[in-house]
Amino acid sequence: MPTHHHEHPDVDCEVLAETMGPSPEAPGTQPPAPPVRAARLLAAGDRVMTRLDTLLERAIPRELNPLAHLGAAANAMVLLATLSGVLMLFWYSPSVVLAWHSLADLAPRSLGGLVRSVHRYSSDLLMLLVLTHALRMLLARKFAGARWLAWASGILLIGLVWFIGWTGYWLVWDERAQLLALDSIRALDVLPIFGEPMLRLFAADRTVPSLLFFVVFFLHMALPLGIAGGLCLHLARLSRSRLLPDWRLSLWLVGAVLAAALLYPATNAPAAAMAVKPARFTMDWWYLWPLTVTARFSGGGIWLATGLAAAGLMTVPWWLARRRPRPQFQAAVNISRCFSCTLCTQDCPFGAITMVPRTDGKPFPSQAQIDPDRCIGCGVCTGACDTQAIGMAWFDAQQLTRELEKFVEAEAARGAAPALAFVCAQGDGGWELFDHAAWARRIPSYTIRPVPCVGWIEPKVVERVIRKGATAVLIVGCGSSEPFAKEGNQWLPARLSGVREPEFRPNRADPRKVAHVTFDPLRPHLLATAAARLRELETVAAPARSRPAGAFAGLALTAVVLAGLLWVSDAPFRNPAPAEAEFVFSFRAHGDWLSGAAVALPDPAHDNRPKHMRTALPAQRTRSPVTVRLTVDGRAQEHVYRPKGLKSDGTSVGELRVPLSPGPHVISVSLATSADPAAVPQTWSATVEAQPRHLTVLSYAPGPGFQIEK
What we know:
This protein is of the alpha+beta class. 39% of the residues lie in helices and 16% in strands.
């Protein structure tokens, strides 16, 4: 324990608080209900993540542990992907005709090819980071109560990142883009957005709308601005948010992406050919995984599956978290003991405490006030208050201090001065899962006292139990880089070392009798060793790291992550669409006009309307339905397509698809635009050679008529 400290006034804040208004004995309540359901399962997953943390941090400091900075690392990849995407505009042509060639013509390791690969792999790494971040927040139970906003906005951000990537792959216009475009348009046709079905335009290369392609390009360029707004919402309830990781970790991530770009350059799949069904190719599963299911769904099924998945994820804070009365677990302020030090507002990780004008007439300018919409009941504010004016009713600091003092005095009086161990209950998954027996086995010579978070411990509590006769006070923090209370493990060591108030005062208790240790579940013997050294009044030192081991661990971790990233980024995919050939007839035709009844007009002699409204009204007219008769090898089918528009005066639009067996087929099409049976329809007939996975596309438009698409 460092001996450096600041001089502290002789006046004890506790004495000052008692003169202001002593508090009665806290009644003490039962611990609140668990914050989430399935707590044991989530805690098991969180312990796995903690073990990964401690394993990595044997060789590298926490500042370089990517699992400790997933959100900030994701932000760094957002910046890299955005910058490389802007640079790609020097080579990319946003045209359905030129897009594929503008990328395919880039040499893989040319400057343009390198920028293209960096853009792809930084986007893939971004998705890996945000998914891991979401999983870690789920396992750490950081979604309940006041944290619902961070969870819901985080899910929205993941959806936005995915959609930006989805549109990005559309812009390549290769076989991958062909399938995702078909699935996207099939889903959009269900919505009342377009005046006519758009899917029929994607049956042939010639008819693919260039304007829609440009709209996708615009969305891909503009939507990243939404990430900035989403981050503001996502971080709104955190006091100290680090947007970017340590510069060394940032360089590490950028270097990993550059290495991937050089070792495995990104390339196009074969160019999109709308009349050919792709069979197999490799694709980026980070963004294109929906292709495995959307081809099997109708447009409505796609929206139903998407809606259910989104609703399930967005509502996790309501169906997986428990509803608990806020006073049972949130902090409360005893105003009579508050003397406006503002330390609680500075230490609260969630900005849940503000200073407001005084209400009790005491000679202090302000008092602390809890924002119930932000407080999660972590207890860090208790450790920041030297007068114990703020805390939780179910774990009252004053009452616990009295109990500990009585316990230590009684034990010392009978000649068995105790050693105390304050253990973070969150390391076991929360108060309700704390394993007293396991901790007693780890440090058998200590009396175990769980605390909500080590940040709950105010140094004065340690001073007082040592003065009463405790031989040692060991404070055990959780080893997770995503602790439930965020900063408890950070503030306590600073208080004990005298660099943050309220500070530990060596003139009131022997600093050799207190130590803070971060528990490593993979090496429990380190805790036992530290506990034994503390009882012998020896210095408890943190485990040393080896620089060569750190470098090797960093390289090994990078290699493993890159291998997994690249495999998922270019894994095989088999198109689930049927391999059979098809004949497709796509048309847009005007039915003949049908005369309607004339609108009855008032008698001119009695027409009181203004003169400008006395014009004759035309007879209402509608168009005739269009009848299509398709005959394949003598088997005929007939379909009637009604005109579009509220008054049935628009165009009739439709598409017919018929599966074909391989080989020649005699096909004829007749299209009748008149309701008169005697009218002669327009016809087309030919022998078609069907090939597996190929479409024979016949189109019809009022001007050019029937046309076979090449």
